[in-house]
């Protein structure tokens, strides 16, 4: 699975960081999905290989502007490209009302249908062909959610030794068995596919969270997750200075949770603009240092346009 | 007067051009005004000397997304800077409904008041301290307007020769007379200030138009305008290919109008993304060539972040 960060700043943009938006797709897939769509997301797309024409679904974690104000413009631009494929959109309920009010006032008509999906319907709907999606409620000033993406249809491998020992000759039967189809051999024997397939590997799973001051709410989702992408708006020191009102997480809060939940890979994002990239009284290095002090897994701090791959073995690597 | 282009593409952005937004201010003024506010305008501001804190008023020409979808984000960011000064906003009536729907759905509260100004009230309202503003209806698929900015309070110059000939000695009296105040001299003579002031120079005037397929609607406004900023979405050839449906102007249409109206300076903007900056089957040079064929004044094609100065003598110059 691949993810690409299209915006990693919290609240307001900086010269190097747009606001929240993250792309996700299966490697090699033409289509892709988007989590959050801050203002400027369509500008970021111009610098990636991702086209609004191939965007299958948009998931909005919550309705603060720095997570959704780019949605009407992206929808409009997809329309100007003469897109005809439906676009699925899932988010907290006022989202639809807001988008429809904007479309009405700006007389925006789209040449493709929008398929509005209720968050609670996500597990039962096949919004994406190759990933299962579910929403988990978080804790923030407005209703906020995390989206879990689990790869669907993990490919099975033949148990070659067992096939040979069982006298099943290689040929079309092997292909059918790999697809999970039971077959009848030329000698009349019936073969149950499941008996000749190796145990499936674990399906990869990524959680991309919205704003949240209680990472522990993701404990159940994290049980089988390989990668957690979570906000770390500031360090503990700044959080204590600001107080709990904004309901964001510190790097330490997220790192401690990821450590306790044994999530092997953690990518932090959604940084307060007070943290400079390199030079400054406060820098991203402060966030990183605090997170590393509490987390021993693979850690990264996202930058705009960074791409990461979650491999089949559950390891995460930066893509160049 | 100074203007700076924050976006010059039509409909969708390109790698080098954001969508419509133009800043205007008097030289040296702390505050400034904005005409249109496409998505990404606040990102462009990060690359200028213009702050959302000093933005006094926003004028929206029409409600198509490529002219106003950046407004909620800019308002939100000004709020996060703890702005307290009121912000005046003028635009076609559904604008207020749209912005309030967005603020409601995204639970955006601003720490400063918005002063919604009806377009027809602009001449009577002092929205800007140093420029008079008026709206002129244009012709487009949705109600669209041009905004005229005329400098207020043109400074007067003393008629030194007449003062000396009249025996008015230099001193505090000269300062008072220049401010337009009648004075009584030490010898008891009463001096009417107006008699000792040179005729005021012409107040500078800039017209910044919205989308429009009838430049002639600006004929009356253009009578005393020094600079016209107008869309030239395509060349005649492309306009004829597309047909009149989108209701945009070609370079030739605008150039012919500016020539007939004797406007001395013309800056074209809002170019279709099909025109490349330099290399391509269609380039901005096509727009420029067509405009020059019909217009003999000072012509420029705007690029993002370009700054221009309209001097007191009515000439326009690029600022570096």
From TrEMBL, chains A, B:
Cofactor binding notes: Binds 2 Zn(2+) ions.
Reaction(s) this enzyme catalyzes, per UniProt: Endonucleolytic cleavage of RNA, removing extra 3' nucleotides from tRNA precursor, generating 3' termini of tRNAs. A 3'-hydroxy group is left at the tRNA terminus and a 5'-phosphoryl group is left at the trailer molecule
Keyword annotations: Endonuclease, Hydrolase, Metal-binding, Nuclease, tRNA processing, Zinc
Annotated CDD domains: RNaseZ_ZiPD-like_MBL-fold (cd07717)
Active site: 66 (proton acceptor)
Endpoints of the signal sequence: none
EC main group: hydrolase
E.C. numbers: 3.1.26.11
Binding sites annotated in the UniProt record for Zn(2+) 2: 66-67, 211, 270
Residues reported in the UniProt entry to bind Zn(2+) 1: 62, 64, 140, 211
Cofactors named for this entry: Zn(2+)
GO MF term set: 3'-tRNA processing endoribonuclease activity; zinc ion binding
Alphabetical list of PANTHER family matching this protein: ZINC PHOSPHODIESTERASE ELAC PROTEIN 1 (PTHR46018:SF2)
Main function: Zinc phosphodiesterase, which displays some tRNA 3'-processing endonuclease activity. Probably involved in tRNA maturation, by removing a 3'-trailer from precursor tRNA.
Assembly and interaction partners: Homodimer.
Assigned protein family: Belongs to the RNase Z family.
Name this polypeptide is given: Ribonuclease Z
Organism for this UniProt entry: Massilia yuzhufengensis
Lineage start: Bacteria, Pseudomonadati, Pseudomonadota, Betaproteobacteria, Burkholderiales
Gene: rnz
